[in-house]
Design brief:
single chain; Alpha-Beta Plaits
């Protein structure tokens, strides 16, 4: 029985890195109209990376989506998201936050 417990304990510690590297859902996903080129993507990344709390921006041109990862405890409200995207020349058609259903503006 003791060998079984030790083996279980060792295996559980070995599996922790696998969970640490698991891909997590982005904190915010924006559906955006008008995304067509790599220049669009770079401009949006630049605008959002200047915001406090944003750790990563990914622009998916094929699907018209922009995903944002935020620092723990950080938040960006919908009004700010819409303004930043409008200032970049694009329109947000839907905003989805991790754990929420899609919302439309």
């Amino acid at each position: 029985m003791r060998k079984f417990l030790i083996l279980t304990l060792v295996l559980s510690f070995l599996s922790v890195p696998a969970f640490a590297n698991a891909k997590r859902m982005p904190d915010i996903t924006l559906n955006v109209s008008g995304l067509v080129c790599d220049f669009c993507a770079r401009a949006i990344e630049k605008v959002f990376m200047k915001q406090d709390g944003v750790t990563a921006v990914n622009v998916d041109l094929d699907n018209g989506k922009v995903t944002l990862d935020l620092k723990p405890g950080a938040a960006i409200d919908d009004k700010t998201l819409n303004r930043l995207m409008a200032d970049s020349g694009y329109t947000v058609t839907a905003i989805q936050r991790a754990g929420e259903k899609k919302s439309h503006d």
